[in-house]
């Protein structure tokens, strides 16, 4: 297997850093404070892009799982492994950021609000799938079982999205681009671009790592050394 270069991930990381630094600077020092929440609203410029990016990665994990079951291609299993690890990271970041925002807004670090609860379930479910992959040694069983588990766990993604509409929730409903002021939209979308590029870079690296590990697992076992050679 040809060893890929690191040029693409490095370029993605650098571009991501530029977008995140620029977007965060505009959000903290240029954009005005929100009328009702005040300065605490500025965490939105990190929290919302994290949420959007997490949902995209979870969707990519779902697509990878379905494609593996249809095509039985190891490339899709490698992509699934990458998406699972990155999605758990971003879901964890999402829960931590939500707690930081909840404390000054709601007065508590955590509330069993429908949006928070379903997000926590999502984090636990995909963390469990990552753990499952580590406990299964056979590559074919690992890929199949984790693909099926991913498809089942993905059912919670639309529940997370619609939870604020289906149940009484402390969490505000989703905004759209057309309802966000331009002053808020510029840093928000700049940080989203940075988050998206960061995720792509991480996915490229994790997919390559998974492919190399699978290659090592597929290598034939070494032949036993003849006794006369050992003598």
Topology:
Blueprint: H1 7-30, H2 44-71, H3 74-106, H4 114-135, H5 139-153, H6 156-166, H7 182-218, H8 227-230
Helix pairs in contact: 1-7, 2-3, 2-5, 2-7, 3-4, 3-7, 4-5, 4-6
Give a description of the structure.
By secondary structure, the chain is mainly alpha-helical. It has one domain (8-171, 182-212). It is 75% helix and 0% strand. It is built from 8 helices and no strands. The chain has helices at 7-30, 44-71, 74-106, 114-135, 139-153, 156-166, 182-218, 227-230. The longest helix is centred in the C-terminal third of the chain and has 37 residues, at 182-218.
The termini sit apart by: 36 Å
Parts with pLDDT < 50 across at least 5 consecutive residues: none
What percentage of the residues does DSSP assign to strands (E)? under 5%
Beta strand count: 0
Q: Which descriptor suits the 3D outline?
A: globular
Please sum up the structure shown.
This protein has helices at residues 7-30, 44-71, 74-106, 114-135, 139-153, 156-166, 182-218, 227-230. With 231 residues, the protein is mainly alpha-helical. It has one domain (8-171, 182-212).
């Amino acid at each position: 297997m040809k060893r890929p270069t690191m040029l693409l991930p490095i370029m993605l990381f650098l571009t991501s850093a530029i977008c995140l630094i620029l977007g965060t600077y505009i959000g903290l020092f240029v954009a005005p404070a929100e009328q009702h929440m005040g300065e605490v609203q500025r965490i939105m410029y990190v929290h919302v892009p994290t949420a959007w990016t997490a949902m995209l990665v979870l969707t990519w994990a779902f697509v990878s799982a379905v494609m593996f079951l249809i095509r039985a291609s190891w490339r899709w299993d490698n992509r699934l492994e990458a998406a699972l690890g990155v999605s758990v990271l971003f879901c964890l970041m999402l829960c931590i950021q939500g707690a930081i925002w909840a404390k000054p807004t709601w007065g508590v670090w955590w509330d069993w609000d429908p949006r928070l609860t379903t997000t926590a379930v999502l984090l636990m479910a995909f963390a469990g799938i990552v753990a499952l992959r580590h406990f299964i040694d056979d590559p074919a069983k690992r890929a199949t079982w984790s693909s099926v588990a991913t498809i089942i766990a993905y059912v919670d993604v639309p529940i997370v999205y619609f939870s604020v509409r289906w149940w009484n929730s402390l969490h505000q409903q989703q905004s759209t681009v057309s309802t966000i002021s331009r002053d808020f939209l510029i840093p928000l979308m700049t940080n989203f671009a940075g988050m998206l590029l960061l995720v792509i870079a991480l996915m490229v690296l994790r997919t390559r790592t998974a492919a190399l590990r699978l290659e090592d697992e597929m290598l034939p076992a070494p032949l036993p050394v003849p006794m006369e050679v050992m003598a």
